[in-house]
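Weekly sync notes, structure subgroup
Attendees: PM, AL, DS (notes)

Item 1: joint prediction request from the bench team. They want all two components modeled as one assembly rather than separately. Inputs as received:
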Amino acid sequence: MAGVSRLQYSNEIRLIRVMCSGRVDLTFVFRAFYNGMDGVFIGGCYLNECKYTTHGNYHALNMVLLGKRIMEHIGLNPERLRIEFMSSSEGARFADIVNDLTQKIRTIGPVGKSEGLDGEELKTKLHEIMRLVPYIKIAKSGKLSSRLQDPGQWDQLFTREEIETLIREVPSYYIDPEKCQACMTCARRCPAEAILSGKNLIHIIEQEKCIKCGTCLEVCPPRFSAVMKIIGEPVPPPIPEEKRAIIRKGKEK
Amino acid sequence: MTGEPGDFEITLIKKPRYVIESRCTGCGTCVEYCPVKIPDPFNQEISKNKAIHIHFSQAIPLITYIDESCLYLKEKKCRICEAVCEKEAIDFTQRPEKVKVNVGAIILSPGFEPFDPKVRNEYGYGRFANVITSMDFERLLSSTGPYEGEIRRTSDLKHPKRLAWIQCVGSRQVLPGGNSYCSTVCCTYTQKQVILTKDHDPHAECTIFHNDIRSFGKDFERFYERTERLPGIRFIRGYPSILREDPQSKNVTIRYSTPDEGVKEEEFDMVILSIGLNPPSDAKELARKFGIELDSNGFCKTNPSNPIETTRPGIFVSGAFQGPLDIPESVYTASGASSQCGHLLDYRRDKLTAERIYPPEKEVSQEEPKVGVFVCYCGANIGRVVDVPSVVEYASKLPHVVHVDKQLFSCSTDSAKQITEAIKEKGLNRVVVAACTPKTHEPTFRDSLREGGLNQYFFDMANIREHCSWVHSREKEEATEKAKEITRLSVARALQLEPLQEFELTVNKAALVVGGGLAGMTCALSIAHQGHEVHLIEKEKELGGMAKRIHTTLEGVDVQEYLRDLVQKVYQHPLIHIYTDASILEARGYVGNFITKVKADGGVREIKHGATIIATGAAEYKPTEYLYGKDDRIMTNLELEERIAKRDERVIRAESLVMIQCVGSRNEERNYCSRICCSESIKNALTLKEINPKMDIYILFRDIRTYGFKEDYYREAANKDVRFIRYELEDKPQVETVEENGRQILRVTVTDQLLGKRLEIDTDILALAAATISPSGSKEISQLFKATLGPDDFFKEAHVKLRPVDFVEDGVYLCGMAHYPKHIPEAINQAYGAAGRVLTLLSHDTVVASGSVCVIDEKKCMGCGACVEACTYGALELYETKQGEKARINPVLCKGDGLCNTKCPTGAIQLKHYTDDQLNAQIDAVVGEVWD
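Output from the run, pasted for the record:
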């Protein structure tokens, strides 16, 4: 309605249409900052007024609350990210919010620079966070689905300490070459296709591709238990290509 | 009008618009240049409009017309609009046109006329600047209103702080110029206005002078409570009088009295008259032309057992011409009328329809992208702010853009053809139109793509009007830059688009009606009459539901006779299959293809059906208060009615009878009004007075809610000496049995608010107006059919105003008391309404489901179930595969909100048309050159 009512607002915003605020992924937010955007705004329907039955706006709210904490963690001003709820008829409200937001962000200044992060450093940090989004979604799935009625609770949904722990305890998965029997199970089940496999070849997790979902750990047959979850330590380097062949005892005989 | 049902001929006079509809695009340039300012009729003449203008911002069609105040029409001068219109759409040669239309059935829906308070001088309307009507105030509240949504006084443009509403203006008055009936909607619309006023200005002080508060509609009691609890709100019971206007300040003084303070005078900044609903001003003329009768109030005379029928066959009525109605009732009488037309004309259904044939779709997804960009001037709407040629120039340099064009109006027929031609000639496989919002013209352009043999999803709209020229109209350069960027985002998105198929689902032509009461049976018959099989499920041993216990209506319909007749018709109809003493074991499926397992007659049957109608009715609350069940002189309204019908001597020969209203309703536990009990009590009281005029009848009430024409019966009861005594929720009547002279006396004590003293009434009979409640089993039905229940356990419609018989779940519909307590004529209205909606579905062989649904890449799915949990539509489920659990989708149930896509940690599930890649492409394109 802001358009139809010809309400003038700041021209520093670009709109991307989604059918529900619940469609806005944490990755989108960080990707925008990665691209150098100074602020990200998500507009959703009023809570409890979902036109679908999914109430995705609650999920969007949780995502924003989490996003803000992560921004704090990497040293970005969380005010750069904002969610507001409104109805389609409230053109004036939309215009006011856009004006207020752009004004605030102008005060905060350009992304990274104002926070003392140089461009490359910021990009590295954001890149790392974007890589961790699948892990974060799994680890925080419960809270990300909650429906907080009372705005007083919003701030406590995610705590600073919680995010620190979350990032500190990012696991890595590693296949113990001694134990791997090249059964291909993990490779077939890996949703990210991050496991180099092959018949009679010891499997290797490509750490760059790994999304840390833990599926390999879960599906590795217990009699092999070859997949290890490593927290807080570096992952051993993959074994060299020439040593990957498994020499089966049965065949030796 | 001449002719007969199935073959009417109507002669219409079409007034000249002086604008050629097919040419006008609604750009508004002519409006801007028009020199004649007139009071805007849509804004209650508070603000000005031009002689040429669009009626209002949501008008259909959204194009201009020329008012009689036009200089050229009056004095043959001016013609500026003609000169500025680039589409040459102005045509002053137009003359009134006679049009003959041949139709099979007619629906009259002329609505109502707001009451004009000028007919009664006492309100000061038209004399005092700050006495306005609720219609005037409605426009003040609107963002498209005279002050852009600001509440201002016309006298000095100040924001009023002290506002007073006066209820029942023109309603519930047996006075010359007034209406005896209740206008039904004013109590609640006033509460809405108060809430909105407080939203505008939290410091506003709002006073409502009222008689009974009639918040009898669904959820209205809560709404009333919400209004009452706002700070600075006073509800004052009584009829105030408007005394005078202050000549300087133009403030208005009102005189009123309260029980505590006596007569008072108080000054207000603005007084709003809550005006009622009159019949349409030309109702008599309309009745004459169509040969129908009007009722004594001047509304359409209808058949009490089918309020959609007029007195003339083949002519139906919907909306407020039936009598004062709220929006949901208006909406379902409309679909009800359509169902009855369908019944009349079913024999020639589909004889006049023609299917549109599109050229075959080319497979282009493997081709190199070739994007065509069309930039619209929208007359001056975009062109005046945004430098369109420079956007065109910019777009032509974007990667994969092979064709760019500018268009005066992209939405006009010739421009749409140009797009189709360009697709064919230049081999375009993606199209971007930089113009307005996709909400208006996306279907138009998708159609152009289909005509060009392209999949319609290879299209994106760059909104450079609502998102740019209109909102940055003073910053031309910046707006132009922004328009370029918006176009760039669209092109980036277009490159990622995929062809999508809208799939067609076959529709099973049968319907399943759950509940064999009045509503269920009426609905079943209406559907069956139009050639569809109906399976009617009733949990009791016989059909009839609550109506079995009702003998007459207030209007005098013999309910039992009507019911017998209806049951007979239902049993005799060859297409209706009846299952009594039945229970539903299982229900699955989706719109057009449901399968329900029913146990009846000792066997279990699987029924396949395309639509489901929930008509499970309601139940009477068994009171736990007022000694009910402890004394056989105490009974509920329905029990009283049964005993009256049986001419129980003890009841009809009683010397005195007390009725207590709101038993189990409007309290903390059941925070709703049961809607029907006031009228039921009055009906019983009138029947008893007829039989035994000497009986002393007392009705103890909180608010008498005899809305609409039922008000006349309230007045009749009062005239026949039925005593009405109001009590407060905090001071409920007390009921006790007292032994006196060896007799057990039933004694009711109540505070008389008018006299301010306690009254003791010894009564022979006590009738309790017990609440109407949701019947047992509603929860099970709700779970079986994914039909949600509201806070009071009545079924929750898809939209309380606009979709009152639909559920959010496609293919499932609602009618009767399962929706909310209602009178028999209302239940019948709604039953026809549901039938109309069902037939809209069942009359098609297929339903089309959107192409923008989710798709799962099973390889990427880790089986975590996050998507399944998020999807409340039940479109997703986990199933076991060789590679562990995986999610799978039933695309038919997917509504395309995409929450699952966001929840998925691995990106395995993607919402087509809004995929991660497509949205990321747009995010990247914001900054410019990094993309491609």
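Discussion: Strands of chain A lie at 40-44, 81-85, 171-175, 195-196, 204-205, 227-231.
Action: AL to compare against the crosslinking data before next sync.
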